[in-house]
Amino acid sequence: MNRVLINTGWRFFKNCNSIEEMDAIESIKVNLPHTWNNLDGQDGGSDYFRGKCFYRKKIALTKKENKVYYLEFRGVNAMSEVFVNGVSVAYHEGGFSTFRANVTDQLVDGENTIIVSADNSSNDRVYPQMADFTFFGGIYRNVYIIEAPAVRFDLDYLGGEGVAVTPIVNEDGSATVTVDSFITGATESATVKCDLLFDGEVVATAEAPATAKTTLTYTLENPTLWDGVENPALYTAKVTLTTDSDSDERVVRFGVRTMKADKDGFWLNGRKYPLHGVSRHQDRQDMGWAITEKEHKEDIDLIKELGANTIRLAHYQHDQYFYDLCDEYGMVVWAEIPYISSHLANGDENAVSQMKELITQNYNHASIFCWGLSNEITITGESEELMALHHRLNDLCHNMDKTRPTTMANVTMLDTTSPIIDLPDIMSYNHYFGWYMGDVNGNAEWLDDFRAARPDRTIGISEYGCEAILTWHNSNPKQGDYSEEYQAYYHESLLRIFAERPYIWATHVWNMFDFGVDGRNEGGVAGRNNKGLVTYDRKTKKDSFYIYKAYWTTDPFVHITSKRYYYRAEKTTTVKVYSNCDKVTLFVGGKEFATQEGKHIFTFEVPLKTLGATKIKAVSGEVSDEASIKYVRKPYQGYILKTEEKVDNWFDKNNEFDFKFPEGYFSIKDKLGDIMATEEGEALISSLMDRVVKTMMAGPDSESKGEVKISKGMMKLAGGMTIERIAGMAGDKVTPDVLFEVNEMLNKIKKP
After folding, report:
1. Dist CA 146 CA 151 (whole Å)
2. Looking at residue 705, what is its pLDDT?
3. I want to staple 584 with a disulfide (CB 3.0 to 4.6 A). Which of 192, 602, 666, 680 is the partner?
């Protein structure tokens, strides 16, 4: 098989509904990967373009006898149709998986025209439709043309490669490796040979006549185990299909290992192996999802530097290259589909299709431990239809892959008595105590309550986090101030809480990187979720990055926190140092000030000079870090988030509506819980809730009827969010005129 990249020289036609319209629309030249939302999907306002666009490319080709040709797309969001020389050859729904089209009959010798539609419009059948991230449209991953022999490894089944490798570790320490090859057009003369290699040397070989499914089995007496970040050892299966006149080949990497999670934690190769890591969204500032191998590599290098040993790849299938990197770096991966936030009445088949593609395309990756069924799917309540689809997905995963467990990420308010708790093999929760509701200690209380109620149930924390923006600073940080100092306090607290509960099978920070959410306006920054430990452009590591590095790494380092908090209105200030060393010495103004012994966090009370800057240096052995702090008589206002600065450009973009925020009266800028704490506010919200949720849940062609129930848990969670943010999470389903109407009603209710 010969796979050739065809990313360059495409023409892009924005907001085009059909091939017939293309000639009337001015096009631009683009190279892939490409998205049309790289800017408007990150600037706030919940108004990024969601619609249908077309791409066109001409390619010259000389067809070869007894060869077949495919077009391969690694990611087109979200609905796509492919045309070759005017003929429709493929239609695909789902924005994150590989799909192919056999175009042998449509291609001609000479010039060929390829046209591809990409459509990220709102609908009621393709997941996701409601989620806290931007749904970037476009052909945002690589596109290839494939030339393959007539007798070949299967390229037609769910975007797979036609080879599945299953390594099983036996009780005596040996490993049984099964290599299944799926053959298209097998003939009597065709054979399949597979060499297993380790460190470039053949360690086992076998051969058999080719059939539609050809199985070769090996025993490795003393296999080298894939052992996480400590030794991510990979074998290679070189599988060759040979006929009298041609051959085809696949090279598949795999790892030999055992993984399991139970009520006492996570186990790798028979030993306790606590999983601590991060979640990752794939987008990047000014690029959206249209990133390259360079950006993928930079991401995993930052994750490795942090000291993580697990990654939750949220909330969809990621690029194959990133799964390859996870294999190489020893990351234990949670892979999932975008069945998220709301159950679509007409979305069952799409959820099933995306799960089939996820498993088929990623079966061979050593890093993948579990298949994620859904994320926060009960946030709008449980239903028979939702439960039925979960059972279907769970059974599907077990039928397709008998080596990996299933899991799901549930939101805080899901009761521990819910039947969905026992549906997947292992369970995790998303908790934001200390950010959206309660305080950080609520995380400990919840875990203890769950452990007491369900002592035999495997439990993990699949999301936790809070927002920090580099601009805001506070010597007395408070929940909701978006300061770098509060985020640091939050993560310090969570690390302590988790360390005291070693039975947690995995913890995943939300999120490793800031990411785009066009409907958000948080902390004075529009269009972004700022919970990352690293900024959206990957250029700045927030202080919280270093507290994890202090806990999770061994290469010595010291980091002085709050370096960006330069102006301080206090004659004696707290200087905090993160380090994985056991002793830190602080120098102030070039003179030794104090030495402390301890772990992870070192705190010093330092007097500041009244004139000029006070220079500080933290030292431990050969490593050091420096900072400067300047005393000022009054608090520097540039560090304090002011309410009026939170008015986002969403309103500027929709200036036909005169949104008002009168002092002393409620508005969409206020939290749902504060509004409902008043009698008038509760009456208004109750009257609006059914209408609003139906609007959020319904697709453009939905004919769904019946009552939409809002759980008490959902109201509790939503109580910490502003009306503006709740509407923003619904994307373009809550329009400016609806939000304007709600704001006017709230303006009539006086605050207590």
Report:
1. 14
2. 33
3. 602
Say yes or no: do domains 2-150 and 163-245 share a fold: no
Euclidean distance between CA atoms 630 and 625, whole angstroms: 17
Asked if residue 724 lies in contact with residue 521, where contact means CB atoms within 8 angstroms, the answer is yes
How confident is the model at residue 730, as a pLDDT?
53
Q: Are 631 and 609 in contact (CB under 8 A)?
A: yes
- DSSP-assigned letter for residue 289: T
Beta strands at 506-509 and 275-280: parallel, antiparallel or unpaired: parallel
**Cβ proximity of 194 and 205 under 8 Å:** yes
Q: Where are the domains of the chain?
A: 2-150, 163-245, 260-560, 654-746
d(CA 171, CA 164): 23
pLDDT at 694: 53
pLDDT (average), residues 689-698: 53
Query: ω into residue 318 within 30 of 0, thus cis?
Result: no
| Cα distance between residue 442 and residue 462, in whole Å | 16
pLDDT value at 729 more than 80: no
Distance between CA atoms of 473 and 500, rounded to whole angstroms? 29
Architecture of domain 260-560: Alpha-Beta Barrel (3.20)
Q: How many CB atoms lie within 10 A of CB 652?
A: 11
CATH number of 163-245: 2.60.40.10
Calpha distance 288→37 (Å, rounded): 7
| Predicted local distance difference test score (pLDDT) of residue 421 | 95
Half-sphere exposure of 343 (CA within 13 A, CB side): 19
Closest Cα to residue 356, out of 303, 317, 313, 300?
317
pLDDT score of 697:
43
Task: Kindly state the percentage of the chain with pLDDT values over 70.
Answer: 93
Give the mean pLDDT of 41-50: 95
Q: Please state whether beta strands 368-375 and 332-336 pair in parallel, antiparallel, or not at all (unpaired).
A: parallel
pTM of the model: 0.90
| Tokens of residue 337, six digits | 């589909």
What pLDDT does 690 receive? 62
Amino acid at 330: G
Taking a C-beta distance cutoff of 8 angstroms, is the pair 509, 277 a contact?
yes
387-417 per-position pLDDT tens digit: 999 999 999 999 999 999 999 999 998 988 8
- pLDDT tens for 526-577 read 999 999 999 999 999 999 999 999 999 999 999 999 999 999 999 999 999 9
User: Would you identify the CATH topology of the domain 2-150?
Assistant: Jelly Rolls (2.60.120)
Mean pLDDT of the chain: 93
Task: Give one DSSP letter per residue of 308-365, joined into a string.
Answer: --EEEE-SS---HHHHHHHHHHT-EEEEE---BSS--TT-HHHHHHHHHHHHHHHTT-
Residues 310, 277: Cα–Cα separation, whole Å: 5
User: Which among 229, 194, 218, 222 is positioned nearest to 208, based on CA atoms?
Assistant: 194
Spatial separation of the C-alpha atoms in residues 66 and 169, rounded to whole Å:
41
Greatest Cα-to-Cα distance within the chain, rounded to the nearest angstrom: 90
The C-alpha atoms of residue 726 and residue 715 are separated, in whole angstroms, by: 11
Q: Is 669 helix (H, G, I), strand (E, B) or coil?
A: coil
Structure tokens at 155: 């390229």
Residue 707, helix vs strand vs coil: coil
Mean pLDDT of 31-50: 97
